[in-house]
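Lab notebook: predicted structure, single chain.

Context: the supervisor wants predicted structures on file for every construct in the current expression panel, including those that have not yet been purified. This is the next one on the list. No modifications to the sequence; it matches the entry in the shared construct table.
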Amino acid sequence: MKASRDWVCIRLLTYENESEYKYMERLLGVTDGTLPNTVFCLLSPDGKTKLTRPTRGPSIFRTPENMAIQMKRMASRYQTVVPDSFVAPVPLVDRVDLTMNVAASDNRPMVVFYHPSPPDLQILVESARPVVWDSRLTGQFMYAATSSKEDLKAMVNASGKAGVYIVEPDEYGVSGKIVRHLAPDNVKESLKRELSQALANFQPFQKNHQQHIRDGYLFGIEWETLIPESDPMSVQAKQRFKARFDSRP
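Prediction complete. Output recorded below exactly as produced.
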């Protein structure tokens, strides 16, 4: 985590964004329509020059310690032009339902910014930037922003009032429990304290991979991606598991 501070770390949406899907296909150099569900590569500041060979994951570094050392070494080649006062934008996921799904998959709480007025929503999100990038909170939450009240339906007992909702997703990211709601005029004063408290109270689900999949099929829960999954190994594994599930007594 410390080594990553010198890098711009981007989590692409794989099967939820067509342009990102095509970009990763070119990066990995795979046949059209066969993109695996994970891609890893370190790039220079121009966003084009590959500093490592594109792979499915960072296993090329062998150990986390070696990865941190190599990342520090590569970052030292470049002179930063970003002033110390710069605060990065809030790392928003495209949609609230997708944010909840990702948060559940990562076993993390999420934050939803809501305001029916898009300009006011932007002001609300901007006011949270310094808190979101606090060293003790960075990477601990998934974030979404919306001006549509419909997007709040999956959040149990959502009031529909403008502000910031801190939410704990359920095990499958189908719904979420609201931990706290902050009014827009209370964000600057209270957001850091409330996020810290929510993180301290958060209890991640203890998931068994096979049981989690079985229960998902039992409950009729299956996430449909915007772009059909194209990872051959993953698709085949799901087909085998579903066939066993469907043929059970």
